[in-house]
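Protein BatD structure dump, as promised
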Amino acid sequence: MYLHLRKYGFLFTISFLSFMGLAQENDGVTFEMKVSKEKLGVNERLRVDFTMNKDGDNFTPPDFKGFRVLMGPSQYISNSWINGKRSFSKTYTYTLAPTAQGKFTINQSTVVIGGKTYKSLPVTIEVTSAVDKPNGEKTVDDIADENLHLVAEVSKTNPYLNEAVTVVYKLYVSPAISVSQFNPVDNPKYNNFWSQDIPVTKYNTQNSTYKGKQYRSIVLKRVVLYPQKSGKLEIEPLSLDVTLEVPTNKRDFFGGRIYTQTNKVVSAGRRTLNVKALPTEGKPANFGGAVGNFEFNVTTSKAKLNASESLQAKVEVSGKGNLKLFQLPELNLPGSLEVYDPEFKENVRTTLSGMQGKVSNSYTVVPSFKGKYPIPSIDFSYFNPSTKKYVRLTSDEIMVNVIEGPSNNTSNSTIVSNNKQMVITTGDQFNFIKLNPNLTAIGLDHFLGSTRFYLWLLLPLLLIPLAILFRKKREAIAGDVVGNRIKRANKLARKYLSNAKKALGNKDAFYVALEKALHNYLKAKLKIETSEFSKDKITELLEEKQVDDTTKDAFIGLLKNCEMARYSPFSDVQMKQDYNKASEVISYLDKQL
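structure tokens r here:
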């Protein structure tokens, strides 16, 4: 009977404890211990979090045997409402360092929540020998290398000789870091290339993908290259010194991640182009090196004219390709036409796809004799890299009809080859010379002894008093050293402020001119030299002159903007605002000084 009672009592106890455990589990309270890793090197750090979903008291940590507490406990509380439901979390965090190798157990911790005591489960940690990278933590350079990339994007890696290649330099920045400024360290020299920069007026940020990951990208530099040599040609890298903010594993009092500022030099790396030589098969004899897709025309401004009148014969090539890198074919005109050296005209713009537009030679042609003169057709050849074939274009023959003029009689003229003409030996070459001069006598109206003569004689005597007054005035002005210096400084200030207005849109030139204007204005108003010039000195002098804080701070702010502009990109809107602000500040200072 007694054994039966003990048996039933034991079963009752187990049932009661199970019921109590189920009740604690079902009351919605959780309290647990989490570790950053269960196996680490002796030189690594271990993070231990004790987390509860309801606020508790009397938290008791374990003894952390085998570890040394480096930091903690740090307490973090999260409290939020989502769809009318409250979400609460409270965490105690410790950072530990192992004291030896081996296996160590972090025992349970306790906390009192709602009058009940809750315990966490123990965790066993294995400590091994030292590892190369403690905690697998990445250094600042590691993070920068993974999240910052400068890339040279090349449109073609296997172009033909004289075919356009576009290189766009992009800076890819991961959302995990932020870039505050960047400065070029080493600009590439494009040896064996004809190059044309396409200026980047604004740094626009775009969402991009790089190696399958999301980045923000900025286009820093764009250049169009035309290789001038076949074979393997290297494009030197562009290097930047970038100032960036990198996240650390440290957190502030509110649990936010702490960032650190660092500098990193990134390079786009060398790129190699395998430039193909132009094929020899089908190459025209008159090929002049044109590569692209072109149209060719020969035109004249007149079809009919008289002798000694002039016309313009134009040889023009238009289209897309290396328009600046080949010679236009020359006209072959009859010797009886006088031809002047051609005037070269160029209307070419360079875009990311290369040069496009037109180039032309304009010949001035003057016929000397009556008759009809043909302008023979000429050829122009180019290589089209798209079709990989040569194209030969031929102009139409043009007939020039000289209606009126002397006849081309070889007995009365001498014709010189190479388009040079002619000495015409007719009898009326000099009819245009006037032989009657129509001269008239001077008469008796002589200057000597006249009234005008005596007035000019006495004029120097009348000017002597004026010269004396003018000299005294100049000496007085020259003696006013301070006044002269102020006038010069005011003049320079107006000059440089005007230069700043003209340079709006050009960041470097604008802020250099603005800073000079501010310097010279202060030299004029406060009588200070450049050697005394500093923001602290300016602040002190403006306070002595009882300038109000708003005007003083605005002036100092402009000087700071001039300094920052050397290292950071500034927009056109910012430059316009700084210019207007400078005008207002100088106006306010004039009133107060």
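Confidence is low (pLDDT under 50) at residues 1-26, 410-430.
lmk if u need the other ones
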